[in-house]
Specification:
Strand order of the largest sheet: 4-1-5-12-6
Largest sheet: 5 strands, mixed
Strand content: 15-25%
Order of helices and strands: HHEEEHEHEHEEHEHEHEHEEHHH
Number of helices: 12
Number of domains: 2
Number of strands: 12
CATH architecture of the largest domain: 3-Layer(aba) Sandwich
CATH class of the largest domain: Alpha Beta
CATH superfamily of the largest domain: Periplasmic binding protein-like II
Length: about 290
């Protein structure tokens, strides 16, 4: 005669045993996933893994080529250094300027190569490499400079509108120069800046020198204000990393130290119209990050 109590016990034991086995398997899988996700950016670079570079469409600093490949000064510098560090596998992530830091923080990109200038407010959100270049700003005006604009103060005194990119340092520079908030137009990027000036929606546009000269070459309806008295000294573009990746920044800087001033960087500079005057001036990121 069947012993129901005994069989019930055996059934429960089998079920519990199976559940335990599944639990162990799940724990093992979870452990593997956590281990994989915990791999640092530096380890991924040294392992030759694919690294996602985030940048905008802003020649000559960083922009996508015909097939989406990363081109521009900061992109090529980063590619050279990553190769020396251990990887040539790159995934370009082209986005708007205002999406770069949020994308880095959210893990959608690994490194920002857009030639972002080192500024104290940005230093609170990203880790910058040492400077990779020196860049100057410029004022874009309609052909002939009909308003006679040569400084931010000229715009302020005449009550005229300045256009620049959303999140650009020019926004703060304009505010510090006394230009009213409703006279500072913020748009997506350089092409939109040029369009606003050409269409008369703004009297002048603020961009870095190389972006501005690139736009002037493409459109004879605009030119650079000459002379232009900038409200700030030259800026220091650098490569930006997540706050969680200090080891990667240190390793990047170690390679960058010998790369700056080398034939390799001068070849990249020459390709995009930069010269010796655009080499870093020796200022350190730690000092540039101070308020």
């Amino acid at each position: 005669m069947l012993n129901w109590k005994h069989e019930n016990y055996r059934l429960k034991s089998a079920i519990l045993g199976g559940m335990a086995a599944l639990g162990l398997a799940a724990m093992a899988a979870a452990s593997f996933t956590i281990s994989a996700s915990a791999e640092s950016l530096l380890e991924r670079i040294r392992n030759g893994d694919t690294i996602r570079l985030g940048f905008t469409n802003e020649p000559p600093g960083a922009y996508p080529g015909a097939n989406g490949e990363p081109l521009g000064v900061e992109n090529e510098i980063t590619l050279d250094i990553l190769k020396k560090m251990g990887t040539t596998k790159i995934e370009p992530v082209v986005t708007e300027w205002g999406s770069l830091i949020p994308g880095l923080q959210a893990g959608r990109i690994d490194i920002i190569t857009a030639g972002m200038w080192i500024k104290p407010d940005r230093c609170r959100n990203v880790l910058f490499s040492e400077p990779v270049a020196l860049e100057y700003d410029a004022l874009l005006v309609p052909k002939g400079n009909p308003k006679g604009l040569h400084s931010y103060e000229d715009l302020r005194d005449k009550g005229l509108t300045l256009v620049t990119g959303a999140g650009y340092t020019a926004v703060k520079n304009a505010q510090d120069s006394g230009i009213a908030g409703d006279k500072i137009m913020q748009v997506a990027g350089p092409p939109e800046v040029a369009q606003a000036v050409k269409a008369g929606r703004a009297a002048a546009g603020a961009l870095d020198y190389f972006n501005a000269t690139g736009l002037v070459k493409k459109d004879y309806g605009i030119e650079l204000a000459d002379p232009f008295t900038s409200p700030v000294p030259p800026d220091h573009p650098a490569i930006a990393f997540s706050l969680n990746d200090p080891a990667a920044v240190d390793a990047f800087n170690a390679v960058l130290k010998d790369y700056v001033g080398s034939d390799e960087i001068m070849s990249v500079f020459a390709k995009y119209g930069y010269g010796k005057g655009n080499l870093p001036d020796g200022k350190k990121t730690a000092d540039l990050c101070k308020d």
